[in-house]
Amino acid sequence: MHLLDINPTELTVLLNVLMHWWYREKKPFPRTTTIARRMGSKLRTVQNALASLEEKKLIEREVGPNDATYVNPEPLVAKLAEFTKDDPEYLIRTRGPVT
Fold this sequence. Notes:
By secondary structure, the chain is mainly α. The chain has helices at 8-19, 32-39, 43-55, 74-84, 88-95; strands at residues 60-63, 69-72. The longest helix has 13 residues, at 43-55.
């Protein structure tokens, strides 16, 4: 969590968002009330966590058709991809042993 600079609440909210992301081209649109209910927390806690994740540029919130709010997790994917470039264990698994 320290690499992403997020706290446990933000991580839990992020995981809840990602639970709704089944196809890369279809952005998730979980209801904040659903996330709050799953977490056993207040709606405002989820809203604050989403705002913080957006401020940290890990997600982008977009308004789609019918004024539905979608969460775009692509910024998180890009950030995680950056981490893999220097991770020796990941590189071994994907490219084989370095000689």
